[in-house]
Automatic annotation (TrEMBL):
Residue ranges the record marks as coiled coil: none
Top-level division of the source organism's lineage: Bacteria
Short name of one Pfam family: FMN_red
Residues annotated as domain Flavodoxin-like: 3-161
Gene3D superfamilies: 3.40.50.360
PROSITE patterns: FLAVODOXIN (PS00201), FLAVODOXIN_LIKE (PS50902)
Protein name: Flavodoxin family protein
Length: 188
């Protein structure tokens, strides 16, 4: 099954998180993973995907303009129901812990729901998630000022682990859904 990861990133933090999501998705047998900066991503490629995961830096609690501009090109796909039932998930980075990461994640999920996608978050039975994660996707804090501080580095490293976990979870969900659809189609 095919998984597309699209990210916006200016200084590289969100790109790092996107790559961890890709790494986790690639662990699932049969997963073909495509990853692109939003500037290079083509919305028409989404039609062929089983799962779509997008993410960006949080800008004032919401989607960065780079990714939002790209999402706003999805009108034709929306009008033709091309993304209905695709599995979706989201991720973001922010500079501060209370800098709006969950607001950004929720804002990233909203357009997926408008497309009719099926959203996958992260549950509490993932211990790291219950301790410092989010149920809405992966939101990682990457403090700019104290980038050399060990605590912030370790928080960022833990966030990358959650990114991998999300990638694996989405790829598994997409595989199970595709197999279920195929089996129902042969019975009908
Ligand atoms: C226009 C703008 C608005 C931002 N707003 C916030 C914010 O509201 N809260 C926050 O914690 N960080 C904010 N940031 C910081 C970025 O979200 C953060 O540094 C992010 O990790 C950068 O990701 P990148 O390295 O992938 O570009 C903002 C940055 C920019 C450029």
């Amino acid at each position: 099954m095919k998984i597309y990861i699209v990210f916006d990133s200016e200084a590289g933090h969100t790109e790092q998180l996107a790559r961890s999501v890709a790494k986790g998705a690639e662990r699932v047998e049969g997963a073909e993973v495509f990853i692109n900066h939003v500037k290079k991503a083509n919305v028409n490629d989404l039609k062929e995907m089983d799962a779509i995961i997008w993410g960006c830096p949080g800008h004032f609690g919401t989607i960065s303009s780079g990714l939002k501009e790209w999402i706003d090109k999805l009108g034709y796909l929306w009008a033709n129901g091309k993304l209905v039932d695709k599995v979706g998930a989201v991720f973001c980075t922010t500079a501060t812990i209370h800098g709006g990461s969950e607001a950004t994640l929720l804002n990233l999920i909203t357009p997926m729901l408008h497309q009719g996608m099926m959203i996958v978050g992260l549950p509490a039975n993932i211990p790291e998630n219950a301790l410092y994660g989010s149920y809405y996707g992966v939101g990682v804090t990457s403090p700019v000022e104290d980038a050399n501080d060990t605590l912030s580095q370790s928080l960022f490293a833990k966030g990358l682990v959650l990114g991998e976990t999300l990638g694996t979870r989405v790829a598994n969900a997409a595989a199970i859904y595709a197999a279920g659809k195929a089996s129902r189609a042969t019975k009908e």
